[in-house]
Amino acid sequence: MPITPPNYNDSLLPEAQRDRLEVVLVSPRNPLNIGAAARAMANFGLTRLSVVAPFAPTWREARSAIGAPDLLLSAIESATLAEAVARCTLVVGTGTLTYRKPEQPVITLPDLAPLVAQELARGGRVALVYGTEKHGLTRDDLAHCNLLVEIPTDPHQPSMNLGQAVAVCLYELSVRARGVENTPLAPTPAAPSGHLELLANLIEDTMQAAGYSPRGMEPANHHDLRLLLRRLNLTAHDTRRILGLFRRILWRLNRDKHSL
């Protein structure tokens, strides 16, 4: 029977928190990369994998998921990123700044662990989001993220293999999260992303009913609202109050419109 060395893997996230840390892959093209990401997750004791609109229908059979076939079989497939992160209170996009101008706060990878550890410690749920191998996360994808974490790479080769990117991030979370539990925490986690999406849709409906802007501006409003709501760092209680406010306004607008 193998003997486990003392203090082996002490720096990994506590098991009670691992279930609330999710890895989300957006439109991955190569099943082998999905398998490599699953293997990296298994190395660090994580089991929550979501795959958004994958290209290949046979991705669950990836042979690269060595030691993690059950993780692939239990992974959740979603049609949209909004659906995949609906339960999460902190959504972290990953990528490089080489080809994008971010519209949300940017942090370096070493600074990510304290934020994730604090959110998990106060009962929140965290998603690490990775884009497609070809282009990474799009501007619309990032509108669903609270933060963008930059993985430092050489400018001559800024992109990183998907499985490697997952492994690097999870390693950083493991080795840097120790001791964060002693940091003062906010009283409650932020509102889940799904609540913010519901609120954004309601505000859009209210804006349309009020004739706020031309129809051609609706895509820009859609994008900007999602960014704004995540910058506000609303709690679930805040979100419920604002939902009630805008439902009342929309009801009044629609009532007045029909009474004309």
Structure at a glance:
The chain is an alpha/beta fold.
Quaternary structure type: single chain
Number of helices: 10
**Kindly state the mean pLDDT as a whole number?**
86
Structural domains: how many = 2
Give the C-level CATH assignment of the largest domain.
Alpha Beta
Global shape: globular
Termini, distance in Å?
Answer: 81 Å
Model description:
- It is a single chain.
- The chain has helices at residues 15-18, 31-43, 69-74, 81-84, 112-121, 139-142, 162-176, 193-209, 218-231, 236-259; strands at residues 21-26, 48-52, 76-78, 90-95, 106-108, 126-130, 147-150.
- By secondary structure, it is of the alpha/beta class.
- It folds into 2 domains: 15-182, SPOUT methyltransferase, trefoil knot domain (Alpha/beta knot, 3-Layer(aba) Sandwich); 193-259.
- A 7-stranded parallel β-sheet has the order 3-2-1-6-4-7-5.
- α2 packs parallel to α7 (162-176) and α5 (112-121) crosses α7.
- The chain starts with 14 loop residues before the first helix and ends with a helix.
